[in-house]
Amino acid sequence: MSNSNKRKKNLTIQVRATTEEKAALKARAELFRISLGELVRQTIFKSTPKSKVDLEAIQQLANARGDLGWVGGLLKASLADVMPYSEKFDQHQAQDLLLQIEAAQIEVVRAVKKLTEKL
Can you tell me the distance from the alpha carbon of 1 to that of 3, in angstroms, rounded to the nearest whole number? Predict the structure, then answer.
């Protein structure tokens, strides 16, 4: 027996659940012939929860990518003289800006992929 199993568990943690959830947990514990507490411990300590922070970061990166696309669209519209009151860019300057926007979008996609691999 490991040391953690020899130690007396004397603290209680309360968790809110619906009647159906409690019944499902009890049934699952009975199926495995372990206590409800042991089921909860095994489930919690042998799994990795999804981080809400990572999900929020992914959403923020997706928003940033969309914003970059929007800015690129505005720049292209300006170059096409669709926006008569916009500041005019020379061709080289505009091409450089579009390349920077595209590079930033690629970095955003890489960051999202890296974050989603952790989930």
Answer: 7
